[in-house]
Amino acid sequence: MPTSADSNRRLQRLDQQRKPIMLRSVLLMTAFCLMLVGLHAWSLWASRQGELDQTAVSTANMARALASHAERSLSSADAVLAELVERSQEDGMDRLDSARMHARMARITGGSAEIQELFVYGADGTRLATSLPALLPGSNIDREYFRYHMAHADTGTRIGKPIHSRSSGILTIPVTRRINRPDGSFGGVAMASLRLDFFGKFYDSFDVGQTGTIILAIDDGTLLYRRPFKPEMVGTSIAGGPVFQLYKKTGPVGTAMMVAKIDGIERLYSYRHVDGFPLLVATAQAKDEILKDWWFAVIKMSCVVLFAVCMLAWGVRRMVRQLRVREALESELRAARATLELRNVSLRQLADSDALTGLANRRHFEETLAFEHERARRSGLPFSLVLLDVDFFKKFNDRYGHVAGDDCLRRVADAIATGPRRPTDLAARYGGEEFAVILPDTDSEGACAVAEKIRLSVQALGIPHADSSCGAVTISLGVHTCCPAAEMDVSPLACIEAADALLYQAKMDGRNRLASCVECAAA
User: Fold this and answer.
1) Angle between the 20-91 and 4-18 helix axes, to the nearest 10 degrees?
2) Cys staple from 274: which of 183, 235, 279, 402, with CB 3.0 to 4.6 Å?
3) β-sheet bridge partners, residue 126
4) Contact in structure between 96 and 88 (CB atoms under 8 Å)
5) Does residue 352 contact residue 460 with C-beta atoms inside 8 Å?
6) Are 351 and 64 in contact (CB under 8 A)?
7) Is the pLDDT reported for residue 386 higher than 90?
8) What is the mean pLDDT of the chain?
9) pTM over the 0.85 mark
10) How are beta strands 475-482 and 383-390 bridged, if at all?
């Protein structure tokens, strides 16, 4: 059966194993919160990259559509110019049929949305043929594109800087070709003016956000059109801008996040060079607008995650508080248990002790006697019992009083307590001036030695006793030794009676002595 000490050691061991649970719980919840925040951050970063990648694909496709549109428009104008140049060179500039050319040019412009006007200029800049109802007076020799063809012998299609039409006043893009005489000398210029607003209307059909942009420019950086449209920017150079710098580094197609020099807005640009023509188209969407919905999702999901983390933190805090309260309660319970055990021990001692002498009382004596008798029966070892009382104690009380008598009994009890030495030995007050000593596993010789020691100790006290023949307080003792294993009918009561008979014999023999009897053959 486990003792109280064993239970306490087990509780301490369990307590040591349990103490780290609070720290482990906090660390676990902290790690879980960090993991939750980390997963949330990774998810947001992945969705941000996904949003940017998706927009990059969208802007790249838009740039491809813009380049295709510009290529078709310029190819149409190029085909018309090729026809005009061929007819002019075939008919000869001096013999050009203006009426027939006008009819053809008028049909072409009437069926084309992008071509505003068609012209054939002579070598001196005068208008030889036009799609307009009437020829305008004057010369176009002052135009930049005209002077270019005068100075350059190449006959390819050239795209010039935007100009205001002298006939209509609107902004147009001059697309021109040189016309040579039969001898190869400069004979004139064929021109198709493309409506700038034609490109503007097409570009306005694309959704690039409030601060997005679409750019159409010549290879040398000359800006033809930019959305949002500002007339004063037409014809300016953007060669130093981020798009052209990227174009120089990466080639005809590219996508990158860059900051515009014009307005300082960071945008995701996608550009593309127009196949067959010296043009570059680019489209861009502002980074803030691309990530606008993403930021909304960030705020919404972050609030959810923050709420979850706060709830977890609150739960952990509550759990830690509960654990602390529980530990405090358990500590108090353990302290109360220890106190209760001490009190139980004290009560047990009080219940088992004689109030006057401090020795075991009669109840404890009888319980111990029955236990040791049974144990001796099982072990087969001898068992001894010593009964003793104070000689002439009644006369001592009558002469010296009960207070002195009580003090005498206390001093005698102290002397008796010095006899038994082993933990299993028990000295008890049997009743009145009678005492008993239980000596387990002790034969007659050992019991007599203990009894004699007790007798001498009491005699050595030297307590005066005028009514005793010895002149001092003495005791008489009866020592009984038996072997319960050999005699099954010997009971604890029989042992007491035998020891009492021996005590009576000691008194009859003159007191202040002991009487013993060997009842166990082994003894």
Assistant:
1) 20
2) 279
3) 139
4) yes
5) no
6) no
7) yes
8) 86
9) no
10) antiparallel
CB atoms within 10 A of CB 319: 15
As given in the structure block, the two tokens for residue 303 are 């609030």
Residue 198 one-letter amino acid? F
Same domain, yes or no, for 328 and 361? no
DSSP string, 24-37: HHHHHHHHHHHHHH
179 closest CA partner among 81, 59, 287, 77: 81
- Rounded to a whole number of angstroms, the distance between the first and last alpha carbons of the chain is 34
Same domain, 323 and 451: no
Residue whose tokens read 């996508």? 255
Per-residue confidence band for 502, with pLDDT thresholds at 50, 70 and 90: very high
Q: Is residue 22 included in any domain, yes or no?
A: no
- Determine what percent of the chain is predicted with pLDDT higher than 90: 28
The domain total for the chain is 3
How many CA within 13 A on the CB side of residue 503?
Answer: 23
Same domain, 141 and 258: yes
Report the pLDDT value the prediction gives residue 347, as an integer from 0 to 100.
65
Strand order in the sheet with 253-259: 223-227, 213-218, 279-286, 266-273, 253-259
Is 179 within 8 Å of 198 (Cβ atoms)?
A: no
In a domain, 41, yes or no: no
Contact 233, 226 (CB under 8 A): yes
CATH number at residue 420: 3.30.70.270
CATH code for the domain in which residue 273 is found: 3.30.450.20
Helix (H, G, I), strand (E, B) or coil at 477: strand
Q: How far apart are CA 150 and CA 124, in angstroms?
A: 10
Do 266 and 213 touch, CB atoms closer than 8 A? no
Q: Which residue segment(s) compose the domain that 158 sits in? A: 49-290
Active-site hit among 114, 117, 372, 433: 433
> In this model, does residue 15 exceed pLDDT 70?
no
pLDDT band at 488 (very low <50, low <70, confident <90, very high): low
Q: Is the residue at 447 inside a domain?
A: yes
Residue 27 in domain: no
- Residue 498 CA to residue 491 CA, distance in Å, equals 11
> DSSP per residue over 160-177, as a string?
---EE-TTT--EEEEEEE
Active-site annotation holds for 327: no
Indicate the SS3 state at residue 394.
helix
CB 167 within 8 A of CB 132: yes
Same domain? For 73 and 151 the reply is yes
Contact (Cβ atoms closer than 8 angstroms) between residue 183 and residue 93: no
Q: Is the pLDDT of residue 17 over 70?
A: no
pLDDT, one tens digit per residue, over 207-237 is: 888 888 999 999 888 999 988 888 888 888 8
Is the omega angle on the peptide bond into residue 228 within 30 degrees of 0, that is, cis? yes
Q: Are residues 344 and 360 in the same domain?
A: no
